[in-house]
Design goal:
A two-stranded antiparallel sheet has the order 1-2. Strands 3-4 form a two-stranded antiparallel sheet. β3 and β4 form a beta hairpin. By secondary structure, it is mainly alpha-helical. The termini are far apart.
C-alpha cells in the first residue's frame, strides 16, 4: 500500500472515531436533558391551592384524596362547624367517612360487598358517606352528604366526654363499628385533609375553627 493511501486511511479512521465521540456526547446530553425534565417533574411541588374559590374544590389532591372526595370532606367540615364543632370534631367526621366509604357517597354497603348481616340476622342497609343504616334516616337523607354529616354530628354531640377519647373510639361510639380501633389508620390522612381544607377553602362567612 502506498504512503498516500495509508495517510488517507488514517484520516478517515480519525474522522469515524471523532464522529462516534460526538454522537455519543450528543446522545448523552439528550439523555441528561430528558432525565433532568423527569427529575424536575418528580420534585415539582404539587398544587398548593386546594380550592379555586371558597367552597369550590379544584384539581389538587391531598393525602390521596381529590375532587369529589375533598368536596365531601369540606361539606362534612362545614356541617360540623355550623353545628358548633371545632376542628377536632370536624376531623372526627372526616375520619369516620374515610373509614366507612373512602369519602365516596356510595349507594351500597356491607351487605352488597361482603354479605354482612346485623346481629339480629337482617341484611345490613348501610349507604352513603357514613354507611348509615336505615334506622339513621331515609335513603334520601343518608345519601345527602350534608344531611348524613348532620346525622353523624348530632349523635356525636350526645357522647359524653368524646373530646377526651381516642379519636377512633369516639367515632366507634357513634358508628358502632365492630372494631373500636377501625378508624385509627385514617388519623393522619384526616389531619392532612382537614388542615388543607381549613387553610384554603373556608370563606369569610364560615370558619373551620368554630
Amino acid at each position: 500500500m502506498s504512503l498516500k493511501r495509508r495517510r488517507r486511511r488514517r484520516r478517515l479512521t480519525r474522522r469515524r472515531v471523532v464522529g462516534v465521540q460526538v454522537g455519543a456526547t450528543v446522545a448523552l446530553a439528550g439523555f441528561v436533558g430528558v432525565w433532568g425534565l423527569v427529575v424536575a417533574a418528580d420534585v415539582a411541588d404539587p398544587p398548593t391551592e386546594v380550592c379555586s374559590a371558597p367552597g369550590v374544590v379544584g384539581e389538587a389532591s391531598v393525602a390521596g384524596y381529590s375532587r369529589d372526595q375533598l368536596a365531601h370532606a369540606l361539606t362534612i367540615m362545614q356541617v360540623g362547624a355550623d353545628a358548633g364543632f371545632d376542628e377536632v370534631g370536624q376531623r372526627l367526621g372526616v375520619m369516620a367517612a374515610m373509614g366507612e366509604s373512602g369519602l365516596r357517597n356510595l349507594d351500597y354497603g356491607d351487605w352488597e360487598t361482603s354479605g354482612i348481616r346485623n346481629p339480629d340476622g337482617s341484611r345490613t342497609s348501610s349507604i352513603g358517606l357514613f354507611q348509615q343504616q336505615d334506622w339513621w334516616g331515609t335513603v334520601e337523607e343518608r345519601m345527602d352528604p350534608a344531611r348524613a354529616a348532620s346525622l353523624f354530628f348530632s349523635r356525636l354531640a350526645t357522647v359524653e366526654g368524646w373530646e377526651g377519647m381516642p379519636p377512633s373510639r369516639a367515632i366507634h361510639t357513634v358508628q358502632v363499628n365492630t372494631d373500636p380501633d377501625h378508624y385509627a389508620r385514617w388519623a393522619d390522612a384526616a389531619t392532612a385533609v382537614t388542615d388543607a381544607l381549613a387553610a384554603d377553602c373556608f370563606g369569610e362567612t364560615a370558619s373551620a375553627g368554630k
